[in-house]
Structures are given as structure tokens and as C-alpha cells.
Amino acid sequence: MTITSTKIWLSSPHMGEKEQHYVQEAFDTNWVAPLGPNVNAFEGSIENYLDNGVSVAALSSGTAAIHLGLILLGVSSGDEVLCQSFTFSASANPICHLGATPIFVDSEKDTWNISPVLLKCAIEDRIRKGKKPKAIIAVHLYGMPYKVKEVRDIAEFYGIPVLEDSAEALGSTFGGEKCGSFGDVGVLSFNGNKIITTSGGGALVSKKKEYKDKAIFLATQARDNAPHYQHSSVGYNYRMSNILAGIGRGQMEVLDDRVAARRANFEYYKEKLGHITAFEFLEEMPEMYSNRWLSCILTPSIQIREKIRLALQEVEIESRPLWKPMHMQPVFEACDRYVDGTSEELFEKGLCLPSGSNLQREDLDRVVEVILKTMTK
Ligand SMILES: *Cc1c(COP(=O)(O)O)cnc(C)c1O
């Protein structure tokens, strides 16, 4: 059966040649379990790719990786965790799973990521109020690196560990080094909409090998070393399936192509829409290289953003407003925040355009045509 659809998606999966081979291998050898050769090989290929001497634990999701990462950094009930407000809710939810409290920090205009200035204010204010934050969650949103050096310097000055949410930034670099390898703990996601996917999955990254070992221990129900099932701590069922890791192995082989294709999407949109002075594109700062997971434009107003989004929707093209900041979410209403309006404005004016690595030139032209028409109407 062939399915024909003209719908253009925001970011859809893009399989390479080898994924089914590795999945078949898992069936042929009966490694149909949350461990096995594909899991080990997938971890090895990510370790090679990120370099920097990191160790990687493949897990069931990026959210699970953030949860375990916070545990490794010592976060527990009653603690406060500083978190970039402009992000997907999965960055913040695991703070709550642990009974800790998220405190939100706004973004800066340069990168759309956590503002080093506000981060410093927030840390000093929390310390003044009597509680030093237990961890900082910084996010490379849409694949654009946050200011890695500034954030690291601040974190080191105050002695607070950084959880680097690199769920959207596999393939991005800062100072020539790969995103995901900077934090005390780094996190990757292989959800269906990410730059590469295992359908669902994630990974915890660290330069500390003992963090990988501890993450795998916790992710497999925290079993003590005994012939029977014996437990001295609370565990989780967070390990990645050997079937899905087979998809991941294949996807790692095409990652560089996927990054190149997404970057080309962004360049094409800029080429075709850049003359509209009302639009703004997020440019890379020195030392930064974005995988351009999603191509985004800033429009002059929420009205124009909605006009474009609805015009695209009318002809089966999916686009989406930028992430709604966490400090504006009903669920986090009661949380303290250090904000200056930057992410609220990005949310109002910004739109994510179709960005998949499998989009054809005709697809991009369809998107561009609708936007140009809307802007001249
Ligand atoms: C996708 C995503 C996550 C969560 O990853 P899952 O694998 O979907 O659990 C976390 N943070 C950010 C910024 C994301 O985009």
C-alpha cells in the first residue's frame, strides 16, 4: 500500500539505509530486550561522535535522562533548581517528579537561551533568601547553543552543577566541541520529532564514567549485586530497548547529512524571506554552530504570526509558535521567576517553519510562497 499525502510536517522522522538491518539483527539473534549489542553499539557511536571523553547511557527518553541526571547531581525533595524558562516542559517536569521546585530564568536575545545576567541575579537572590540552588538546567533551544562559557563560569563560581539539555542540539557545536558534552550531565533526545530518532528514546551524557554506571544502575531497577533480586535504593525502568537502539545505530550513520539538510533549510528560508525587513532570523554568535533543528522566524506581532500560521494550516502545512515559556504555563504559575519579557516576546512573535531533513525543494517553495502571499496581502 502506498500512502500519498501532501501534508508538510514541522519535523518528521527521516530514516536512512541501515536502521532496518540493525533491527533485523536484533530479531535474528533474539536480543529483544532493554539491553543487548545494539544498545552498547549505539552508546559507543554517540561517545565517538561527541568525543571529549564522554560516557553515554542510552535511556527510554530524554525526560528520563533529565530525571536521572538531576538525581546524579544530588537534587531531592525540597531543593530548588534554576531552569531556563524558554523551553519545552520536559526540561522542567523532572524537577517536580523529585519533589523539588523549579525557579525560572528568562532568555537573552542573542541566543534565545538562558541569560547569563539573569542567571547570576537569580543565584544571588536565592542565596540571599537562604537557599542555594542545587542545579542549573540550561537548554540549547532549537539547536542554538547557549552561552556555554558564561554559564559554566557562573556555575563554577557559585559551585552549582549544570544539567545541559541538549535534546534539540545533537550535531550543534560551541568552540568546535559538540553540544551535549559540556554539562556536568548532558541530555539527548531521540523522540520522533528530533534531528535523529529511535521513535522514542534518550541518553545521559557525562565526562564522569561513574555517572553512566549509576544511571544504568538506576535505569534498571537499582538491583544490587546478588543472585536474587535485592534492592537498597529506589530504581526506575528507564533503559533503552535493543530494538530501538538498532534504529539509533542506523540514524547515527546519517546524522551529519541530517544536520547539513536542516542547515540548508534555514539558509533557503533566509534567502527567500530575508528581504522582508519585518522578519528576523536567529543568527549564530562567534564560536557557535547550530544544527538548525527547527528554522524559526520572528514576525512583527502575534497578529501577523497567527495570520501566517493559519494561512499555512489552510493548505496542510504545519507550523508552530515558539515554545510558550514555562513561567507563563498554568502548571508553573506559583513558581518564582527572574524574567525581563524576552521569552514572552519571542513566544508572541515567533513561528517555527517546516524543518525536516526530508523536505524537498518543492516543499520549501510551497511554504515560502504562502508566507510571501500572506505578507503582501
Ligand atoms: C524533546 C525535549 C525533551 C524531552 O525529550 P523526550 O525524549 O521527548 O523525553 C527535553 N527537553 C527539550 C528541550 C526537548 O525538546
From TrEMBL:
<dbReference type="GO" id="GO:0000271">
    <property type="term" value="P:polysaccharide biosynthetic process"/>
</dbReference>
<dbReference type="InterPro" id="IPR015424">
    <property type="entry name" value="PyrdxlP-dep_Trfase"/>
</dbReference>
<keyword id="KW-0032">Aminotransferase</keyword>
<dbReference type="GO" id="GO:0030170">
    <property type="term" value="F:pyridoxal phosphate binding"/>
</dbReference>
<dbReference type="InterPro" id="IPR015421">
    <property type="entry name" value="PyrdxlP-dep_Trfase_major"/>
</dbReference>
<protein>
    <submittedName>
        <fullName>Pyridoxal phosphate-dependent aminotransferase</fullName>
    </submittedName>
</protein>
<dbReference type="Pfam" id="PF01041">
    <property type="entry name" value="DegT_DnrJ_EryC1"/>
</dbReference>
<keyword id="KW-0663">Pyridoxal phosphate</keyword>
<feature type="active site" description="Proton acceptor">
    <location>
        <position position="194"/>
    </location>
</feature>
<dbReference type="GO" id="GO:0008483">
    <property type="term" value="F:transaminase activity"/>
</dbReference>
<dbReference type="InterPro" id="IPR015422">
    <property type="entry name" value="PyrdxlP-dep_Trfase_small"/>
</dbReference>
<comment type="similarity">
    <text>Belongs to the DegT/DnrJ/EryC1 family.</text>
</comment>
<keyword id="KW-0808">Transferase</keyword>
<feature type="modified residue" description="N6-(pyridoxal phosphate)lysine">
    <location>
        <position position="194"/>
    </location>
</feature>
<dbReference type="InterPro" id="IPR000653">
    <property type="entry name" value="DegT/StrS_aminotransferase"/>
</dbReference>
